[in-house]
Write a structure and sequence with these properties.
This protein has a domain at 37-51 and 58-130: Nucleotidyltransferase, domain 5. It is an alpha/beta fold and 139 residues long. The protein is elongated. The model has no long low-confidence stretch (mean pLDDT 80). Helix content is 37%, strand content 15%.
């Protein structure tokens, strides 16, 4: 009986599938980071509320931030009421029941908030929700 003295081949790692997975993960994290970045205007301190529903993000939700100085920011850009109307009306024409979340600073004049709601309704958007936060428990 003759045995071969050949050394077994070293196991090689396939790099192509691993690179594919790394790129997919990278793309996933970049895309989700961009979505969360537009809604978290750090200068907006939303009012507190004892009651309220847990935040459920809806697909394609537009976040409108109203800062303390009454400027309106949508997707990271500052807009006025006319620009907001144009943007929302074009979106409402394409997507029925488009969800909008309004994040108004606690110090914003109530009239400004009503103007933004009125602009949303003129544009044909009725699915409007408001962002609040729970009060911090005092010890």
């Amino acid at each position: 009986m003759k045995f071969s003295n050949r050394q077994p081949e070293a196991a090689t790692m396939q790099l192509a599938p691993m690179i594919d997975i790394v790129f997919l993960l990278l793309i996933f994290f970049i895309v989700t980071w961009q979505f969360t970045r537009s809604e978290t205007e750090l200068s907006v301190s939303v009012p507190t509320a004892q009651e309220g529903a847990e935040p459920e993000r809806q697909m394609g939700e537009i976040v409108i931030n109203i800062l303390a100085d009454e400027t309106i920011r949508v997707e990271g850009t500052t807009v006025d009421l006319d620009q907001l109307y144009e943007k929302l009306s074009s979106i409402a024409a394409q997507f029925e029941n488009q969800p909008v979340r309004i994040r108004g600073d606690g110090g914003v004049v109530y009239q400004r908030l009503v103007e933004v709601i009125d602009t949303c309704q003129k544009a044909g958007i009725w699915n409007i929700s408001f962002a609040t936060q729970r009060p911090t428990p005092s010890n």
